[in-house]
Amino acid sequence: MRAPSALSPFGLLFIALGAVLELAAWLAWFGLGGVPGTAVFLVLHAAAALGIAVGAWLLLPLRLRGGRGSAIAFFFSAAFFTSWLGMAGIVLALLPGFYRYGLRREPGWEQRREPDLPFKPVQVNPNGVFMRVGLAAVVKYFRDTDLRRRAVMATRHLSGRRAVPILRQALRDPADEVRLLAYSMLSGKERVFELEIRRLQAELREHDGRSGDWLREQIASLYWEQSSLGLVEGEVQAFVLQEALLNIDAALSGRPTAGRHYLRGKLCMRLGRYNDAERALSEARRLGLDDNRTAPYFAELAFLRRDYATCRAELARVGHEIRKLPRLEPVVQYWI
Description:
Elements: H1 9-32, H2 34-58, H3 68-81, H4 83-103, H5 129-133, H6 135-141, H7 145-154, H8 160-170, H9 176-204, H10 209-228, H11 234-254, H12 258-271, H13 274-286, H14 291-304, H15 308-316, H16 320-323, H17 329-335
Helix pairs in contact: 1-2, 2-3, 2-4, 3-4, 6-7, 6-8, 7-9, 8-9, 9-10, 10-11, 11-12, 12-13, 13-14, 14-15
């Protein structure tokens, strides 16, 4: 930014000339009197006002010298119509004020406080309430709306299997902002599955043979994951499972593998078709799928048939590492 200019010598000269002319005007007024004195006074007073106006403009800082004609007219009017008081006001009040303003530098940057936006990344304190009681408890029991909203936002850092139940709980929240936030986050997760399934279906229409079988297996896996995460319920879930079963059957008709039979067995279990599930899981085991994946489902089938001895025997086939999984550990500890 350009610094203000120093005091202009020409400006000071015009101010001095104006002061002398003003003094002469008053001397003529008192000395001559009457009409001649008044005429001389007006001429000298106008000349003095013009000198003061030009001098004041020359003394302005460079940044304030825009509009020369209007600025000089303003100073001339103030000096002429208020006589000596206007001239003194320009020299002793206006000019120092303008010059002081010209010395003030505007900062290039202005520091502002960071706004408290609602969607900033959530920083989870290990000693905070979220870690002590869990996000699900915060959403379900806490009265503080902002705390419940933050708990819903924190589900972004969880796996889908853990986040979806909390989001579904938040859909029943009394606060609109919490419900809408949970709904938008669930919709976003569903949208990801829908877009990927549509992409695979479009690709499937352009392929056949083994590549088509693989695409159908991927579509069935996405449908299964969408259902297992709890993103769909009721009749929509039944439709999704049926679509998954149709796709995995089509893949099996092309090339049966242990993984495809295993997926078909899980789908049949979820649909309540237990005999079909047993056949599919048995075929998956025959083709080499390890017991860590098939034994829990065989144990569940045996339990549903009240064959508790087989249930215990199947759970015994599960490896020690798999037994430590959170969902399986209490079951294994009860039966074995």
